[in-house]
Design a protein that fits this description.
Layout lengths: L1 H32 L1 E6 L4 H12 L6 E7 L1 H9 L5 E4 L5 H9 L4 E15 L7 E3 H9 L16 E5 L4 H11 L15 E3 L2 H10 L3 E6 L8 E2 L1 E3 L11 H5 L6 E9 L4 H11 L1 H9 L9
Parallel strand pairs: 1-2, 1-3, 5-10, 6-7, 6-8
Antiparallel strand pairs: 3-11, 4-8, 4-9, 4-11
Length: 294
């Protein structure tokens, strides 16, 4: 009799454990379905954070984790399956598409905004206009002193993003290499590589001899944005929302979100929100350029 009772208890405990296990799995599955991991570009991390806050305010059970680290970091995370969305300030490269495919991941590109890359100096620096060729000569190390550009007799301190940054890649491809895919020119080895756009801003604010490049969302009264001309004799264009939207500013670029082609309703809803009128108004509020006039 005791043995039968013990067996009955054991069966009940097993059923209870199975029930609890299923309940735990269900809770975990529900939590996962309500969670998004986003990684990548430091340029738009604040924009995406604001989107996430506004999007999840409509459903407080949604959890969205966002980390920067550069566009390359975002693509690596998307490729290895540790994030749902990659933020990027550059297009995905063929090698990255191939790596993703090997992992059965097929990234889909969504253009979510526009940006202009500002060449920034300290407000104490009198240099306020440069041609693209002059900017290129600065960052390749050919021009070494501000006096060569009408400034003080001071050595130029070059600041660049690190190589995993989409901002770094875009600037290299479109300014250093002049949009020529066969060109192999590089930044000067004297360029100081900074971990984030904010680090470049902080250094320029504190150093009258520094020059760097960041997205227009980083503009503040503590910086001076240099007006850029495509070539000598052309009009110098200041970086702002209107000049980027009209494609007059020479160093403009699209901003992207990339997601796996796997059907994920929450991811799709988030991207759809970023492209909505409400999401695009946030682009404008954070000093980037929306895809359309609102």
């Amino acid at each position: 009799m005791k043995i039968k009772i013990i067996n009955i208890i054991a069966v009940c405990l097993c059923l209870l454990a199975l029930g609890c296990s299923k309940e735990s799995r269900d809770r975990a599955a529900l939590a996962k379905s309500k969670s998004i991991q986003i990684k990548g570009s430091d340029t738009i991390v604040n924009l995406v954070q604001k989107w996430a806050e506004d999007f999840s305010a409509k459903d407080t059970s949604i959890n969205i984790g966002i980390t920067g680290g550069g566009s390359g970091t975002g693509f690596a995370a998307l490729i290895n399956g540790t994030c749902d969305i990659a933020m990027s300030s550059r297009s995905i490269e063929e090698a990255e598409i191939k790596q993703a495919g090997e992992n059965k991941i097929f990234p889909v590109e969504y253009k979510v905004g526009l940006d202009g890359l500002m060449v920034i100096v300290n407000p104490k620096n009198p240099v306020g206009e440069l041609t693209l060729a002059q900017v290129r000569d600065i960052f390749m190390g050919t021009t070494k002193n501000w006096k060569e550009l009408g400034g003080p007799d001071k050595k130029i301190v070059m600041l660049s993003r690190e190589s995993n940054s989409g901002t770094h890649m875009f600037f290299k491809e479109h300014v250093i290499r002049k949009g020529d895919k066969k060109n192999k020119d590089e930044f000067s080895p004297r360029a100081l590589l900074m971990s984030s756009s904010q680090a470049i801003v902080n250094e320029v604010v504190g150093n009258p001899n520094a020059v760097g490049y960041v997205g227009i969302g980083y503009m503040s009264a503590a910086l001076k944005a240099v007006a850029i001309a495509k070539k000598k004799g052309d009009k110098f264009i200041s970086p702002d929302i209107d000049s980027v939207l009209s494609d007059k500013y020479p160093i403009s670029r699209p901003l992207f979100l990339y997601a796996s082609s796997k059907n994920n309703k929450l991811v799709n809803d988030f991207i759809e929100y970023s492209l909505s009128d409400e999401g695009q108004k946030t682009v404008r509020k954070l000093d980037f350029v929306p895809l359309r006039k609102l």
